[in-house]
């Protein structure tokens, strides 16, 4: 790296350090400012300048400079999955390139905040574990605990099993470091972080393969792999749809708000919330609500993307759009594909 560039990077970190001590800064920033993660990796002593890190996280950043890149990658995974899961909903998981990243949505313990906490915690587990398996981190590698043993079906454990224990440990230590453990808000976040970690740890897949001459299956081996991150997103979205409301006066331990079920302990896969969600219909920048004006909706859908639901009953505008496509393609011997050009008109609806 050129000297001038290095100075710019330092400049950025110093600037950010001195100018943005805003309350909202958070480690999520590592996901949108890959520069900050990159610099912290190359110069671990700059970890203190990354906005939003608490003391414990700065220490982990200094001691595991490679892993800090994974944290950034994990946040990006989480953001991407969040936006994909919510792309047709009123709240669509908008983020900003600022240190608050998710904006004021996280100031209240709503089910949306719960999803963000879970999906980013899961992202960190996923990214760290993948780096372990790729041999990119010094503190971990593939999980060899089962190597040499035999599965129930008589297959041998082999290959590289994803070392999810390390990923879970890292994510727990790093992500949970923000929480104080003494107030209810922290307890809620801790529970949701855990749901995210378990969404991976409890869903490991078994993969097996035959080896041997021409598929003779002389050697059969199995290993464990993490679920695809999209599966993790789907799993968490289901939990988001059935969240558990917490009694506002819970102390030390979370309790359900619903009196009848107070005694039923909260399970490891329940996303929890304290505050009811706004309807996200009208723009309100102070609360980080974008509103649904201008969002594209589907006229005949019955789901959340229907014009009725997405536009909150305000109605929608319809535009006719001309689409030009290749069509009626034919294979011509040999070897060409000939197409015609077709024009179609499609209606595009956007919320008023
Ligand atoms: C491992 O490191 C290599 C080289 O830096 C990089 O290309 C690759 O994406 C990394 N893999 C993971 C899973 O982090
Ligand atoms: C979410 O919706 C807003 C409009 O309300 C739009 O500007 C934005 O691009 C959308 N974000 C994503 C990630 O789809």
UniProtKB/TrEMBL annotation:
Pfam families: wnt (PF00110). GO terms for molecular function: cytokine activity; frizzled binding. It is found in: Secreted, Extracellular space, Extracellular matrix. GO terms for biological process: canonical Wnt signaling pathway; cell fate commitment; neuron differentiation. Its main location: secreted. InterPro entries: Wnt, Wnt_C, Wnt_CS. Gene3D superfamilies: 3.30.2460.20. One of its GO terms (cellular component) is extracellular space. Keywords: Developmental protein, Disulfide bond, Extracellular matrix, Lipoprotein, Secreted, Wnt signaling pathway. PANTHER family: PROTEIN WNT-16, WNT RELATED. Belongs to the Wnt family. Ligand for members of the frizzled family of seven transmembrane receptors. This is Protein Wnt. The lineage of its organism: Eukaryota, Metazoa, Spiralia, Lophotrochozoa, Annelida. The gene is wnt16.
């Amino acid at each position: 790296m050129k000297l001038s560039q290095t100075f710019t990077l330092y400049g950025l970190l110093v600037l950010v350090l001195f100018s943005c001590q805003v309350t909202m800064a958070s480690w999520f920033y590592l996901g949108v400012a890959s520069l900050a993660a990159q610099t912290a990796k190359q110069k671990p002593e700059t970890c203190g300048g990354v906005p939003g890190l608490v003391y414990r996280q700065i220490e982990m950043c200094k001691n595991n400079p490679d892993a800090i890149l994974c944290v950034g990658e994990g946040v990006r995974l989480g953001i991407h999955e969040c936006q994909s899961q919510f792309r047709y909903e009123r709240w669509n998981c908008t983020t900003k390139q600022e240190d608050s990243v998710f904006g004021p949505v996280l100031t209240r313990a709503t089910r949306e905040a719960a999803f963000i906490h879970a999906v980013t915690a899961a992202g960190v587990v996923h990214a760290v574990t993948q780096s372990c398996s790729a041999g990119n981190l010094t503190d971990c590698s593939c999980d060899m605990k089962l190597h040499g043993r035999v599965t129930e079906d008589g297959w041998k454990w082999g290959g590289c099993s994803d070392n999810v224990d390390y990923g879970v440990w890292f994510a727990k230590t790093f992500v949970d470091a923000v929480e104080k453990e003494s107030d209810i808000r922290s307890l809620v976040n801790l529970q949701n972080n855990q749901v995210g970690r378990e969404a991976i740890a409890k869903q490991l897949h078994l993969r097996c393969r035959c080896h041997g001459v021409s598929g003779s299956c002389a050697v059969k081996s199995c290993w464990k792999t993490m679920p695809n991150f999209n599966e993790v997103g789907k799993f968490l979205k289901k939990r988001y749809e059935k969240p558990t409301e917490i009694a506002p006066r819970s102390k030390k331990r979370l309790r359900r708000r619903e009196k009848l079920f107070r005694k039923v302990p909260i399970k490891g896969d329940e996303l929890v919330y304290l505050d009811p969600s706004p309807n996200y219909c009208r723009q309100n920048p102070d609360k980080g609500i974008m509103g649904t004006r201008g969002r594209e909706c589907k006229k005949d859908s019955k789901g959340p993307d229907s014009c009725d639901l997405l536009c909150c009953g305000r109605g929608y505008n319809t535009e006719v759009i001309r689409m030009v496509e290749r069509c009626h393609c034919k294979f011509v011997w040999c070897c060409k594909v000939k197409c015609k050009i077709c024009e179609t008109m499609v209606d595009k609806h956007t919320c008023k």
